Amino acid sequence: MRVRLLIAAGVLLAASAVAPLAHAGGAAGAPGLPTDGHAHGGFPTDGPTDGGSLDGFAADGLSVHGYGTVGDDATVTLSGMYRCLDDSAGPVFVSSTLVQGNRSAGIGGTRAVCDGHLHEWVNTSVVKDPAYRPGAARVRATLMQLTSGTTGLPTPGFLATEEADVELR
User: Fold this and answer.
1) Dihedral sign (CA 138, 134, 38, 63)
2) How many of the other CB atoms lie within 10 Å of CB of 63?
3) pLDDT for res 23
4) Integer Cα distance of 12 and 146 in angstroms
5) 88: Cβ–Cβ under 8 A, 6 or more apart, which residues?
6) Are 127 and 87 in contact (CB under 8 A)?
7) What is the predicted pLDDT for the residue at 58?
8) CA separation (Å) from 132 to 85, 106, 122, 124, 126?
9) What is the pLDDT of residues 104-147, one digit of tens each?
10) Whole-structure pTM over 0.90, yes or no?
11) Splitting the chain (169 residues) into consecutive groups of 10 residues, what average pLDDT does each group show?
12) Residue 2 CA: distances (Å) to CA of 6, 8, 63, 64, 131
């Protein structure tokens, strides 16, 4: 398991050089944030979700939108919302894994903006052989920070995780 984490950390670190920054969604609203009255990844949702800065909450959080897309070219897109407070110890990423039936694959990685505001994350990847199909699936999303370990290798620290059922369109 540790080897898999180190490999994943290395892949995310390499991807950070080319991964676009997440789109800031703080003041513009939080489309797709769950509003079913349950907490999702640390976000309270029993009131209106105006996409504000969540100033009253001192925690990192993550949510997954209830849908994803599968393009004709097998491009899978997943999204959600996140909030992180501090990236001074190392870069923070939003990673996602899509599970459908017995198929599981990592879908992209987005570099997080840790300014205490709510942001949207969008991860995209082309997945073939076999390709995902429209219908029910499950997403595992993780807000992860890479820090320098005692050996000098990047060590992942998990700030928040979320698992959610999604509908692939």
Assistant:
1) positive
2) 28
3) 33
4) 9
5) none
6) no
7) 62
8) 34, 12, 17, 13, 10
9) 999 999 999 999 999 999 999 999 988 899 999 999 999 999 99
10) no
11) 42 37 33 35 38 54 97 96 96 98 95 97 94 96 94 93 97
12) 6, 10, 25, 26, 28
Classify the phi-psi angles of 75: left when phi > 0, otherwise alpha if psi is within -120 to 50, otherwise beta.
beta
What are the structure tokens assigned to 33, written together? 């944030």
Token representation of residue 102: 């017995």
Q: How far apart are CA 138 and CA 150, in angstroms?
A: 35
- The amino acid at residue 66 is G
Task: Find out whether 36 and 59 touch, Cβ atoms under 8 Å.
Answer: no
Matching residue, tokens 């370990």: 149
Tokens, residue 75: 């491009």
